[in-house]
Amino acid sequence: MDFLTQSGISMLARKTQEPVKDSSIRLLMVEDDELDHIYFREMLSQINDTTYSMKRVSRLCECFSQIQREMPDIILLDLGLEDSVGLSTLSQLLQADFDIPIVVLTGTDDEHIGEAAIQMGAEDYLPKNKTTGSQLYRSISYSIERYRIYKSLKEKACTDSLTHLVNRLGLFERLEFLIDQAERNQTQIGIAMIDLDGFKAVNDKFGHVVGDDLLKKVAERLGAGLRKSDCLARYGGDEFVFIINHYESTENFENLVRKKLHNLHAPFQIVVEGKPQTLFVGASYGISEWRKGCSSENLILEADKSMYLQKIKRQKCVKRTPHLRLV
Questions:
Q1: Got the DSSP string for 42-78?
Q2: Is 277 helix (H, G, I), strand (E, B) or coil?
Q3: Lowest CB count within 10 Å: 1, 193, 211, 320, which one?
């Protein structure tokens, strides 16, 4: 949680003084021991004011399938399964990025494993043979609430306040996750860096209020019809970045980027000193594609260089920049 500020951590501490109270919690237990399953189910059945809808699977592969069918509110994860043993069990579940809080179940004398699990990303750990009903209730409730606050703080930290797109921090976080997946599965990742042509002139001539309004409108157009697997971020100033994956070829990737930029061709309606104005905007772009061993920083740098070269080339082709003009 490197992005959390000290005030954010303090807020987290205050918020978790009392466990979250929910009338119904969907719980997935990943446990291959039937007796442990019965023991935990019995404890949950005796908790007042909260109804637990528990489903149980005995293998990690079954856990993935069950989550695809129905998202639980929390997972109780045993680290000793038939198809996965130890902290790698937790690691595989975290890498799947299901966005679900996890409480790890450990053996009686495995506190060091539980602490390691929390460092990896689990919300809590419970020694199976020592856990009481009140401890189980508090662990589940606290874990759900902590995770909710964590997500809220993370979303704020990774969101651009003007356009509400992913910001630079969120962009690199998303890239790191996709690269980690690509290293294992050899999937494709394409980066497109986009820079508005002549945007500085808008701020200089009409002021930053008009410039900000234009940036918000540009963000809306670029993000229109964005696929769920892709990402649009505001990199800074008038620069935007697309992350595109699951495409067929480099040509297909470039075509997807051009289609997005085509949305900028239609004029923008802005207000200057109370009067409506029509503004035409153009943009330069550069692309890069991930290959094994390439870092997120290098991907962005290559796309940025490609965009700069295109901008220089376009400026040489015309004596003035007609891409940003009022009519």
A1: HHHHT-TT-EEEEEEESSHHHHHHHHHH---SEEEEE
A2: strand
A3: 320
Whole-prediction pTM = 0.72
Reading the block at residue 304, the tokens are: 């940025």
Instruction: Please give the Cα distance from 138 to 143 (Å, whole number).
Output: 8
Amino acid in the structure at residue 135? Q
Report the length, in residues, of the chain: 327
Token pair 């290098």 is found at: 298
Q: Does residue 184 or residue 193 have the better pLDDT?
A: 193
Pairing state of beta strands 51-57 and 24-30? parallel
Determine the Cα angle at 4 with ends 101 and 91, to 5°.
35
Token representation of residue 110? 């495995």
Edge-to-edge strand order for the sheet containing 102-106? 51-57, 24-30, 74-78, 102-106, 124-127
The Cα 322–Cα 324 span in angstroms is: 6
- Give me the residues paired with residue 190 across strands: 244, 289
Radius of gyration of the chain (CA): 25
Calculate the dihedral angle through the C-alpha atoms of 133, 136, 137, 139, rounding to the nearest 10 degrees.
160
Q: What is the pLDDT of residues 279-315, one digit of tens each?
A: 888 899 999 999 988 999 999 999 999 999 888 877 7
What would the DSSP string read from start to end of 155-197?
Answer: HHHTB-TTT-SB-HHHHHHHHHHHHHHHHHH---EEEEEEEET
